[in-house]
Amino acid sequence: MSGTVTIVEVAPRDGLQAVSAFVPTEQKIALVRALAAAGLVEIEATSFVSPKAIPQLADAAEVLAAANAIEGILPSVLVPNRKGVERALAAGARKLGLVMSATEGHNRSNLNRSVEESFNDLADIVATMPADGPAIRWSFSCSFHCPFEGVVAPAQVLALLERAVAIRPGLTFALADTTGNAAPDQVRALFAEAIARFGSRARFAFHGHDTYNLGIANVAAAYEAGVREIDAAAGGIGGCPFAPGASGNVATEDVVWLFRRLGVETGARWRELLEAADLAARLAGGGAASGHLRHVRAAREAA
Ligand code: COA
Ligand code: ZN
Question: Is the pTM of this model over 0.85?
Fold first, then answer.
């Protein structure tokens, strides 16, 4: 295999959002710097959501300002509504990650809205954003499995995509396995169908979690189906606090390792990535979710 894939590094946002002890702003910024030094270009730096919902990311404006000052990266921020967009733009956001869920249960739990209400909010944001405004990506959480509703029918996600794609051509849509319950056949089938139907008007990204150790297999399945943008968090940290049972994101070092073995270029620098993964895991409470990180820590202790 050959080619390239874009990694969207989400450790500073998805990775830290559920960590209960507040991570000092300076350390969040140090993490973004370490990820940038590892050659990661697309970095989801924070989110502009209610600080009551996610107190950990109440320092979003400061983190984004510092991320914007790092050369060579494109920081993005997650936003769920108009208020989030306004705060993000005021803080200098160059790329917005719009988010809602594909299922009623999770959208209610996470955003306190119906799917229809959130869809209309996000559609309005896309439709009214000027052409010279920030880049936009649109994510559907729980595109494969919902903690409240179980397995999600592909038709449910495809119906949302059909409407969303029509609003503005050229957007990227991230389909997320928020709980880490998806299996590779499910991932392959949904992306193959989405790309067959909408691939001429939209691009697709996969956002996976590794709850049942199928995260990397799911990434490989998404790639085989034609997906060229993969979300991952250094150190395998992360999870949505409003999705019971969710656990860490697929680890960036695992994803980079997979693509190295497949001969697919990611642009990541291996040693620096392991350093960033080590820092991410420490900020999130110390665990070393990925085999690579355990290996690196063992080698360091032995030295
Ligand atoms: N950023 C900051 N504050 C926001 C906000 C945003 N994006 N959106 C709403 N608020 C504020 C409102 O201004 C209002 O403030 P006030 O009480 O001082 O007047 C308050 O939050 C309530 O507004 P409302 O629209 O009624 O929000 P809500 O209570 O229904 O909550 C969300 C809806 C979307 C704001 C909230 O559920 C949320 O932030 N969820 C994000 C969860 C998340 O990040 N999950 C993980 C990532 S998928
Ligand atoms: Zn996630």
Answer: yes
